[in-house]
Amino acid sequence: MSDRTDTSPDALFDGRYRIVRRLGQGGMARVFLAQDESLHRPVAIKVLADRHSDDPHFIERFQREARAAARLNHPNIVQVYDHAQVDGASYIVQEYVEGETLKELIRREAPLEARRAITIALQILAALRVAHQQGVIHRDVKPQNILVQPDGKVKVADFGIASAGETEMTEAGSIVGTAQYLAPEQARGLPVGPPADLYAVGIVLYEMLSGRVPFEGDAAVTVAMRHVQEAPEPLGDRNPLVPAALEAVVMRALVKDPRQRYQSADEMGVDLDRVRQGLPVSDETAVIGAATIAMARQPTETMVAPPLPAREGQAARQGNPNRRRLWVLLAVLVVIAAGAVAGWALVGGEGGGEDPLPTTTAETAAQVSVPEVVGLKEAEAVAALKRVGLDALVIPVEDAEAPEGEVLAQRPVAGQLLAEGSVVEIEVATAPGVVVVPNVVGASLEEARSVLEDAKLIVRILEAASNSVPAGSVIAQSPSAGVELKPGSTVEITVSTGQEQGAVPNLVGMDLTNAENTLIAADMTLGPVSEEPNDAPQGQVVAQSPAAGAAAPAGTAVSVVVSTGPASVPVPSVVNLTRGDAEGQITNAGFVVSTQEAAVSDPGQDGIVISQNPASGSSKPKGSTVTIVVGRYTGAATS
Question: Which residues are catalytic?
Answer without folding.
Answer: 140
